[in-house]
Amino acid sequence: MTLTQLKYAITVSGEHSLNDAAKKLYIAQPSLSSAIHALEKEIGFAIFIRSKTGITLTTAGAEFIGYAKSVIEQYNILDAKYLSHANLKKYFSVSMQHYTFAVSAFVELVKQYDVKEYEFEIHETKTYEVIENVRNQKSEIGILYLNHYNQPVLTKIFAEFSLHFVPLLECNIYVYMWKGHPLANKYQISLEDLDEYPCLGFAQGEHNSFYFAEEVLSTYQYKRFIRANDRATMLNLMIGLNGFTLCSGIICEELNGKDYCAVKLKSDEKMTIGYIMQKNAILSPICEKYLQEIAKYQKENF
Hints:
By secondary structure, this protein is α/β, with parallel strands linked by helices. It is 40% helix and 24% strand.
């Protein structure tokens, strides 16, 4: 296995056909095809599915490409620092469940870098995709929560994918709603108080198991339940339908505005928010700075 083969495979994964990839690499299509076949033979499985309509990644191939990109990125860093002495563009990617404070921390991180020096990515997405993105090294870390219900299942998945969970904060459960909600002025709210209002949750797609729910107490039998795909829709439903969701209680008014509030839920339930990373990986300096930004929200809210 060579760096050239890895670069070839990465290029092919971003194109619709071997012919398009060959043109991009400035090599003959038969030479590229031969190199990919040799790589697949060496590693013992197919990276790509070839058909009349084009070329797509296999499941194992997608994971392989994630690792290949990491290897090439590390090589480019070594090359820039010790060989070509070039200025390498800084790169950082994070995936997360829908946490406003994690987005706000990302905003503060980006402000610290010159716009010409970096390439950053943020993926606010479904729980399983958070895990997959870290597993395939699309993201350096993934931010999600554990509680007594989902921990046994998710911890098992982390172990299977060679991931490690690092706790950031433990918090009580709060009811997140708009300030015009009939219950917004209460000191504490019970689940029974909420029965007449729709509970809002983030859709998890094909992995719509209770274990992947972003909201704690996902097994409670709510009378009304609505799933949404994004935070903007969620906020609109809170105002339009007096809907609510359950959260950590950390509010970022600078992003969501001042029209929303969090009221303590009458429950002994706890949630531990943390991040997952590749086992034995060393976090980049940029990632460390990002976690420092998140730590500021810990101090402000707990």
